[in-house]
Amino acid sequence: MIELAQTTIGGVLTGLVYGLVALSFVVIYRAARIVNVAQGQLVLVGAFLLWTAASALGLPLWLAVPAALAGTGLLGVVLERLVFRPLVGQSGFTIVLATIALLVLLQGLVQLLWGAETRPFPAVLPSGSLHLGPFRLNRTLLLGGVLTVLLTEVLHWFFLHTREGLRLAAVAEDHFTALSMGISVRRATTIAWLLGGALACLAAMVLLSGRLLGASAAGIGFVALPVALLGGLESVRGAALAGVIVGVGEALASAYLDPLTNGAMSPIFPFALMVIVLLIRPQGLFGWRVIERL
To answer: What are the boundaries of each domain within the chain?
Structure first.
C-alpha cells in the first residue's frame, strides 16, 4: 500500500510538470488557435538560453533566469510574427505543416548553435528528497508542482478578471467577432506567444534543474501535447488536472505494467488515454467545444 501511494505521489508531481508545459500550449491556442507541436523545442531553447547565461557567461541565477525567460518569450513573439502571422486565413492543415517544419528547423538550429553533446544544467531549484513519514518527495518536482498550481490559478484569474485576459478570451472565441469589438487580434496573439515561450522556459527549469541538458529534453513536448488535448486546449485548469491524470497513470503503468510488457506500456500511456478520451469527448475533458478535425 505504501509503495502504491509513493508511486501515485511521484506521478502527481511529475504530471504537474507536464501540466506546466501543457499550459504553454493552452495560452497559445486560446488566442491564436494554433496547436504548436514545436513547443517542446521552445522548452529546449529556453533550457539552452539559461545554460548559456548561467554557465557559459557566468551570470548569477537571479539574472540568468529572467534573461532566459525574456529570451524564450521573445523567440515566441518572433515565431508568431515571421511564421504564423503570414499564414492567417490559411487552412488548419497548412498551419499544422508549418508547426512540424518549425519543429525540425528549431531542432537543427539548436544543434548548430549548441551542439549535440549533453552538459550539466544549473541547479535552479533545490535538489534532494523531503521525507514525510514513509514517503519521499522530490524537492525539485515538489516546488515545480507548487509553481504549476500557482501559475494555473494566476492565469485562470488573468483570463477571467483582467481586461487583457478578457480580450484574449474574446479572441479565442472568434477572431472576427473580436475585431468587430475593437480588440486587436495581433496584440492578443503576441501576448499569447510571449506567455507560451516564457512558460516553456519555466518548464525547462523545473524539468532539468541539476540534471543533464541534451537534445532529448525536447521530448517533453510530445508528452505534454496529449495532456493539453486531454484537458481541453482552451482550459487553463484543465491542463494541470490532465497533467496529474497522465502523470499518475504513467507512473502506475511504469511500476506495474512495464515489467509485463518489456517497458512498452508507460511511454504509450499518455497517447492511448488521449485517444480514448477524445473518441468519447473530442473537445477534451474541460474544453469549450469540439476541436476541428483536420
So the answer is: 2-112+136-280
Give residue-wise pLDDT tens across range 45-56.
999 999 999 988
Phi and psi dihedrals of 242, rounded to 5? -65, -35
Strand 135-138 and strand 212-213: the pairing is: unpaired
Cell numbers 532566459 correspond to 68
Q: Is the pTM of this model over 0.85?
A: yes
DSSP the chain: -HHHHHHHHHHHHHHHHHHHHHHHHHHHHHHH----TTHHHHHHHHHHHHHIIIIIS---HHHHHHHHHHHHHHHHHHHIIIIIGGGTTS-HHHHHHHHHHHHHHHHHHHHHHH-S--EEPP--S--SEEEETTEEEEHHHHHHHHHHHHHHHHHHHHHHHSHHHHHHHHHHH-HHHHHHTT--HHHHHHHHHHHHHHHHHHHHHHHHTTSEE-GGGGGHHHHHHHHHHHH-TT-HHHHHHHHHHHHHHHHHIIIIIGGGTTT-HHHHHHHHHHHHHHHH-TT-SS-SSPPPP-
pLDDT digit string (tens) for 60-90? 999 999 999 999 999 999 999 998 888 877 7
Q: Which residue has the higher pLDDT, 48 or 128?
A: 48
Q: Which residue has the cell 486560446?
A: 30
The CATH code of domain 2-112+136-280 reads: 1.10.3470
Tell whether the model's pLDDT for residue 194 goes beyond 50: yes
